[in-house]
Amino acid sequence: MQEDRAPEADAFAHAIAAEIPRLRRFARVLVKNGDAADDLVQETLVRAIGAREQFQDGTNLRAWLFTILRHARAAALRRAARSPFLSPDTMPEAAVSGGQEERQAMRDVIAAFRRLPPIHREALWVVVVEGLDYAEAATVLGVPAGTLRSRLSRAREALRRSVGLDAGEAGEAADG
């Protein structure tokens, strides 16, 4: 029986390993500090491997891992609330190639993203950057799909206002 489980365990381990870069990116959005993000990913991997039996084959592994990561972050926040030793999170600097204008535009977007409430940052990240569909993202974030859509709409509008675009300009920029 042990021999039958080895290929399945290997496949599961390889599938999880393939998701590590996405987990790291999402963790950096949530905690903003590189070392803390790596710790959060490690905690997520430990929890995922320990809960292997709870994963249902045929379901979205990435969404399952993101949910575990968010739960691990929530647990870390509860611990941090009791500890005065954790430093505030900082957003990682985004690498941007190009001229000064492009760098400044990216800084403006990053600053606008930082100013979003955490629930809006998370919603925007999992849908726009990680590419989860609305149903998967809603499951990861633990909210109804309608709530997710509302958060996305508000986040996008806040970003547009913050970088000086109105809704008409944003549509033209996306089309052009």
TrEMBL record:
GO terms for molecular function: DNA binding; sigma factor activity. The keyword Disulfide bond does not apply. SUPFAM superfamilies: Sigma2 domain of RNA polymerase sigma factors, Sigma3 and sigma4 domains of RNA polymerase sigma factors. Keywords: DNA-binding, Sigma factor, Transcription, Transcription regulation. InterPro entries: PhyR_sigma2, RNA_pol_sigma-70-like, RNA_pol_sigma-70_dom, RNA_pol_sigma70_ECF_CS, RNA_pol_sigma70_r4_t2, RNA_pol_sigma_r2, RNA_pol_sigma_r3/r4-like, WH-like_DNA-bd_sf. Residues 16-69 form the PhyR sigma2 domain. The keyword Oxidoreductase does not apply. It holds the Pfam family PhyR_sigma2. GO terms for biological process: DNA-templated transcription initiation. Residues 108-159 form the RNA polymerase sigma factor 70 region 4 type domain. Belongs to the sigma-70 factor family. ECF subfamily. PANTHER family: RNA POLYMERASE ECF-TYPE SIGMA FACTO, RNA POLYMERASE SIGMA FACTOR RFAY-RELATED. This is RNA polymerase sigma factor. It comes from Roseicella frigidaeris. The lineage of its organism: Bacteria, Pseudomonadati, Pseudomonadota, Alphaproteobacteria, Acetobacterales.
